[in-house]
Amino acid sequence: MTTDPSDLAAPWLNGDELKALMAKNAKEDPVKIREIFAKAKEMKGLTLEDVAALSAVEDKDLVEEMFAVARHIKEEIYGRRVVFFAPLYVSNLCSNECAYCAFRKSNHQLVRQSLTQEQVAQQTEMILNQGHKRGLIIAGEAYPGGLKYILDCIETMYSVKTDKGELRRINAELAPMTVDEFKSLKATNIGTYVCFQETYDRDVYKQVHLKGKKADFEWRASTFDRAMLGGIDDVGLGVLFGLADWKYEVLGLMRHIQHLEERFGVGCHTISFPRIEPACGSEMSKNPPHAVSDLDFLKIIAIMRLAVPYTGMIMSTRETPEMRKKTLDLGISQISAGSRTDPGGYTEDDGKFEQDDAAQFHLGDHRTLAQVIDSLVKDGMVPSFCTACYRLGRTGQDFMDLAKPGLIKQNCAPNAISTFCEYLMDYASPETIERGLAAIDKEIATLNPEGQKIAREVVKRVRAGERDVFC
Ligand code: SF4
Questions:
Q1: How remote is the CA of residue 217 from the centroid of ligand 1, in Å?
Q2: What's the pTM value of the predicted model, to 2 decimals?
Q3: CATH homologous superfamily for 75-347+354-363?
């Protein structure tokens, strides 16, 4: 047995230092801000102090300039690609007491359910039938039968095959584990391990996490250290915006990334951006203590796009279609669609009926995957179901080596095009096929000659019936 090193708590997070940085930069300084914009355009990332300064931007023109820089970086690095994934909630049992969450242990209004392996297989099939290739296993933080239940669920999800394929990558958003447990998780071939700190403010953390293992801030804040020691080098961070001052939270996120870079040489693969949404039986979720306005939320997305240009940024279906569109523009690179947050929620009728009394929170975007794809294509985007990097072993530092020089756009475009073409051939309506193929042609025209050649070849192979074509 590997004993978790006792130095794994979170001394790297000094809340007083972060608050002092906020105070020092509280007054908007247009000269300094524009210097930071210029630096951000070099796409080498920003410092904590830069982020603190950007968080103070209130002037309308400066906000617009910041959004323009964010759009520029998004376009330069990610082009018009948008990667899709589908969450699969396997259980809503939980041993914790988080005041904002419907799954918390004492919530007797919630209908509790854990899927059997047969149900996990059936739900996976539903997700595949929508057209997804990338799944995210999620559960409340107590599993029937312990971690083995989750490991079995992942094995089941990977084992499901339909006539149109299988899940090619499963990411996992699960409770923090010991190093040995992370080794077992790694052995199931997961992609990214995701865990939200929820808030980096220790006082607020204590007020909203009332009981259970999660009440231990240090245990949670040291989760990725244990994950990396357990061999998982591909991790996803997140805070739940609305619990504490968002200006502090973005500094907390930055500090966490810095810490992982300093200790392990690689930061995070993704950051998720959930805002508190109303949840069954949670008064706090209806009146968040630090509710984030739409404008501030857009600022958060833009600031993080400037600060960590090569990190994937994820938006779930918590937000409305309008907000999702705006955030995609400013920096979001991955979204879920057609999602359900209640275990067993995917149905043949494409989720028209929500079982809110079993769900973690209310959804803001109820559209099906097909509707979201159609709308994105109309907006000039290129949906992607690509999983190539992970399957070619380009994760952790290898992924960053590829991403940081900006090669990702040229490498990813043919793979995005290939998987989108697959989606069109296998799932789309005739109208979407027509629009989608036109979008593919337009996207190919933006590539360099070598990229164009590769992309045309993959489209030809996919249209001829070949599947899972990637480079
Ligand atoms: S946020 Fe997670 S740990 Fe907390 S009650 Fe909900 S499911 Fe449980």
A1: 14
A2: 0.94
A3: Aldolase class I (3.20.20.70)
